[in-house]
Design a protein that fits this description.
By secondary structure, the chain is mostly helical. It is about 70% helix and about 0% strand.
């Protein structure tokens, strides 16, 4: 009865721990996933085909139930990302990204690409706690490409700064669903996140900035 109710309401059983035998083989899953990554990384096939082949192999090997996999997807996030991608394209084609980049470049001294890296890194860190991290990346990418041209710096450095900054979400319980889950299970308060998260954020931002400057500039 309890198991049926949990499955129907899509709740997670925390106690007692459910005694279930693993139905998947981690080494096999890792090998198939690694195959998809290698096929895409070496441009043997496109990423869509590479990971499509990986999914097909998992299904043929009985390691993936496609119906359960599709049911477990967070469809609101998928739809939101599908809507954000055209928005990022519109920012570039309408000139909005160029205008924003020009405004930012006007207040920064030219000839210092490290300042552009710091700017994009801090923007991503500031937006991620309040906006989905993937949406932050999509919105800031066209702006970073325009700034890269203005500062004559490698676009990869700014893109890495955005990717890393969008991943540093330690300040709010709603910036990422993992934070929300931990808050509920651990009984944390909102104030606990910035109190414990700001030192981690500062350390990771400094480490990320120095690494990008050393390896990408």
């Amino acid at each position: 009865m309890v198991s049926a109710a949990l499955e129907e309401t899509e709740c997670l059983q925390l106690w007692p721990a459910p005694k279930t035998k693993p139905t998947t083989q981690p080494p096999l899953l890792l090998c198939v996933f690694a195959l998809g990554v290698l096929l895409a990384a070496f441009d043997i096939v496109s990423p869509q085909i590479a990971f499509g082949v990986a999914i097909l192999l998992l299904m043929l090997l009985g390691q993936l139930n496609l119906r359960e996999a599709l049911a477990s997807l967070n469809w609101p996030i998928v739809v939101m990302l599908a809507c954000m991608i055209p928005l990022a394209g519109a920012m570039q084609t309408t000139g909005a990204a160029e205008m924003i980049a020009s405004s930012l470049a006007a207040v920064l001294p030219m000839g210092y690409p490290s300042l552009a890296v710091a700017l994009m890194l801090l923007l991503a860190v500031a937006l991620t706690p309040f906006i989905n991290n993937a949406s932050v990346v999509i919105a800031l990418t066209p702006i970073s490409l325009e700034i890269a041209q203005s500062f004559n710096c490698p676009p990869a450095a700014l893109l890495i700064a955005i990717a890393v900054g969008a991943s540093l979400d330690f300040l709010t319980p709603f910036g990422h669903h993992n934070n929300t889950l931990v808050m509920g299970i651990g009984g944390y308060r909102f104030a606990d996140f910035p109190r414990a998260g700001w030192p981690v954020t500062v350390v990771t931002v400094v480490a990320a900035f120095l690494s990008i400057v050393v390896f990408w500039l």
